[in-house]
Amino acid sequence: MNQEVSIVVNNVGKIYNLYEKASDRLREIIPFSRKTYHKEYSALEGVSFEVKAGETFGIIGSNGAGKSTLLKLITGVAKPTGGSIQVLGKVSALLELGAGFNMDYTGIQNIYLNGTMMGYKRCEMEPKVKQVMAFADIGDFIYQPVKTYSSGMFARLAFAVAINVEPDILIVDEALSVGDVFFQNKCYRKFEELREKGTTVIFVSHDIASVKQMCTRVLWLDQGRQKMLGESVEVCNAYSNSIKDKGFFVNKEATAMYQRKDIRKIYYPPLSYSKESLLNDSVIIKCAFFKDLQDSIVTELECGKTYTFVQVFESHRRIEKCISGFVMETPKGLWVINCNSSIYGKKTPFSVSASSITCVEFTFTLPHILKGNYIVGTAVSEGEIENFTVLTWLYQVMNITIINQWANSAVIDIDPKIEILTVNESEK
Length: 428
Hints:
Elements: E1 5-19, H1 22-29, E2 38-52, E3 56-60, H2 67-75, E4 82-87, E5 91-94, H3 107-117, H4 122-136, H5 151-163, E6 169-173, H6 181-196, E7 200-204, H7 208-214, E8 217-222, E9 225-231, H8 232-247, E10 248-250, E11 272-274, E12 283-291, E13 297-298, E14 300-302, E15 306-315, E16 319-329, E17 335-340, E18 350-352, E19 356-365, E20 372-384, E21 387-403
Helix pairs in contact: 3-4, 4-5, 7-8
């Protein structure tokens, strides 16, 4: 194997035999038995890729796509039915947090136990124990049997053991969902440290934003087949779009371009929304989109530039106190912008008559927020800002991309006034 490559997967397939009853397995192995009692299930077929040494490689796909099966083959937990897998280096895998732990052992004893399972001698584990203890940060519980741990403490210790034994290859399967936000942040920083040291990381997650952030290349599996392999952002965007296409339904009445002059004759751009949306037959949001200063509909917004969010809704009843607005959130669900007509602009609800079409426009300059992909929702409510009822809320009406040309180090960039005062030692 090329020394610059850590993992080579060549045309790998995995077939499982499925039995209706446990006794059918025994019947099938009886000598001279010619009857087949199982059905074959192809979990993987024709998967091929290479992972370079020091690379952070992502694997994505829906449930049942074959991700966990592939990881089991790479780690040697299972054997492929066809093809070959070559792995160069010591592997630490987080397939199931705490797998291999002895519940009657203390935390300290389990640290040594896992080190032994990875091939380390006790003397080699001595300097690593303090690192694991500091990373897990569970206090004196480290000296208690792990069967007394809460699920959070157990996960923290298991993660700390796997990530601090300095493997050549680290395999992580949905492990970053454990612990509080501070522990998750610590894990991400540890990943960056391992990457700088040249550790190869295989990262499997349903959190597409994290995959984009951490991985250079990504493999997309779909029903056991290799759907796409390539640069992280490209593959993740294609996967996200496929989910949206499957999970959304389209208002077929929405047909074309926005014409502001007469809202009764608007030619609506297509509108889609997730099935979790709150619908109302009496208040129907007809379209929602962003436009630039040239009145062109856009899905890419650049920080520092001015845009207008347009919402058009039809009401079959009178709304005495109406509130219109939109939300922009990260793929993880963090609200970055929450804008409505009672917080900004009018500051008070407005009235809507029955059998009417209303167009609400929110014109704003996009602040310097973190570049990347965001999800937009829009709603129409009734009442005051302190006490209102949502009439219609369309979730995930669009994905937009934020472009930030400035130094982009956090969720929001600020432009502070900075003063610096320096006093030389001689002036004291």
